[in-house]
Amino acid sequence: MIYRNLDGDYGTDYLLTPPGRSHIERIAGWDGDFSGTGLTWVELIRIADSPLSGS
User: Fold this and answer.
1) How large is the C-alpha radius of gyration of the chain?
2) Which of 7, 20, 31, 37 could form a disulfide with 11 if both were Cys (CB 3.0 to 4.6 A apart)?
């Protein structure tokens, strides 16, 4: 999650880095209006049930 509070550029970005990948995917954002796909319950449960090992 990234909070932006610059003059003329404020909002919140919700980012996800898929396991085994190096790129970041923007799944949602809030710039006065909500945008993005977010996560399904199945995706959210899978992420919660699979914490990173070795951290």
Assistant:
1) 13
2) 31
Structure confidence at residue 50 (pLDDT): 80
Pick from 23, 22, 25: which is nearest to 43 by CA? 25
**pLDDT value of residue 54:** 44
Residue type, 39: L
Phi/psi for 2 (5° steps) reads -125, 125
Helix (H) or strand (E) holding 45: helix 41-49
Long-range contacts of 48-52 (CB under 8 A, 24+ apart): 50/19
DSSP annotation of 39 reads -
Q: What are the backbone dihedrals phi and psi of residue 5, each rounded to the nearest 5 degrees, phi first?
A: -140, 40
